[in-house]
Specification:
Elements lengths: L11 H7 L4 H13 L2 H5 L7 H19 L5 H21 L4 H28 L1 H12 L8 H18 L2 H5 L7
Helix pairs in contact: 2-4, 2-5, 4-6, 4-8, 5-6, 6-7, 7-8
C-alpha cells in the first residue's frame, strides 16, 4: 500500500520514483549503515563523535572501493566517492557551517579521506602488523582501549575476505555483508 502523505493523499510520486534511486546512493547508504553499527562504538572503542563516525565511514567506503577495484566499474567507484563528498557537504551544512567555509572544510575532509585511503591500501599490501599500526593511527588517534586495535584489524581483514566472496552484482545493488 502506498505511503500516506500529510494531507492524507497517496504519495504517488514518491512511489513512482522510488525505484530510480541511483546505485551509488543505495551502495553508499549501505556503507553508512554498516559504519553506524553499535559494535564499533560500544565494544571496539571507536569514539562516538563526528570524527569517529567519519573514520568508520571512510574505513567501510575503502573496503567497498577496494572490492570494486579491477572489476570494470571505475565509473561506479568514482560516483560512490562523489556521493561521499556530497554527503560530507550536506552534513557540514546541516551542522550550520557557513557557505563561505564549507569549501575549505570539504577540502580538509578530502585530504583526510585520500590520506586514509592511501594508508589503508598500502597497509593492506604490507601485512597485518602495518595494517594494525595504520588502524591505530587513524581510528584511534588518542589511543585505544586494550584489544580494540587488534579487534578492528581483525574486523578489517575479515571484511576484505567477506566482501571478496560476495558476487559483484550483489555489491552493486548495495547488498553488503560485513563480519
Amino acid at each position: 500500500m502506498p505511503e500516506l502523505g500529510y494531507d492524507g493523499k497517496y504519495m504517488i510520486l514518491k512511489q513512482l520514483f522510488k525505484g530510480r534511486e541511483k546505485r551509488e546512493q543505495r551502495l553508499y547508504g549501505a556503507i553508512v549503515a554498516a559504519a553506524r553499527h553499535a559494535q564499533f562504538y560500544e565494544s571496539m572503542g571507536v569514539a562516538d563523535t563526528i570524527e569517529g563516525r567519519f573514520e568508520m565511514i571512510v574505513l567501510h567506503l575503502f573496503l567497498v572501493l577496494n572490492r570494486l577495484k579491477g572489476e570494470g566499474v571505475e565509473d561506479l567507484r568514482q560516483r560512490l566517492t562523489d556521493e561521499f563528498f556530497a554527503d560530507m557537504d550536506r552534513s557540514l551544512r546541516e551542522l550550520g557551517v557557513s557557505d563561505v567555509t564549507v569549501g575549505k572544510k570539504v577540502r580538509k575532509i578530502a585530504e583526510s579521506y585520500y590520506g586514509r585511503v592511501t594508508a589503508f591500501d598500502k597497509a593492506l599490501l604490507a601485512g597485518p602488523k602495518i595494517l594494525e599500526e595504520t588502524i591505530s593511527r587513524n581510528i584511534y588517534p588518542d589511543g585505544a582501549l586494550e584489544g580494540s586495535t587488534r579487534a578492528m584489524t581483525t574486523y578489517f581483514a575479515n571484511a576484505v575476505k567477506q566482501l571478496g566472496i560476495i558476487p559483484l552484482e550483489q555489491i552493486i545493488q548495495g547488498e553488503l555483508r560485513f563480519p
